Amino acid sequence: MKVIVNGEARELPAGTSVAEVVATVTTAGSGVAAALNDEVVRRSEWDATTVRDADRLEVLTAVQGG
Fold first, then answer.
1. In 3D, which of 32, 2, 25 has the Cα closest to residue 14?
2. What is the pTM of this model?
3. With bands split at pLDDT 50, 70 and 90, how would you rate the model's confidence at 54?
4. What is the rounded distance in angstroms from the CA atom of residue 15 to the CA atom of residue 36?
5. What whole-number distance in Å separates Cα of residue 48 and Cα of residue 19?
6. How far apart are CA 13 and CA 25, in angstroms?
7. How many angstroms separate the CA atoms of 46 and 48, rounded?
8. What sign for the dihedral angle of Cα 66, 40, 53, 11?
9. Residues near 55 by beta carbon (within 8 Å), at least 6 away in sequence
10. How far is the C-alpha of 4 from the C-alpha of 58, rounded, in Å?
11. Which H or E run includes 36?
12. 64 band by pLDDT with thresholds 50, 70 and 90
């Protein structure tokens, strides 16, 4: 299936979870947020939430700075 991750098309196997996609984008253990089709997905729901063909997933990482 084709999914848009942070604006880029990716081919992923059916049944891929949000947690699995996030792990391909960042190794950060904290400060990460995910939005599936413009809706924030709670971290506690990442493993149980699967992406579907044509979904859009944005993975955001907090960065400190001044």
1. 2
2. 0.91
3. very high
4. 15
5. 8
6. 16
7. 6
8. positive
9. 3, 4, 36, 37
10. 8
11. strand 32-36
12. confident
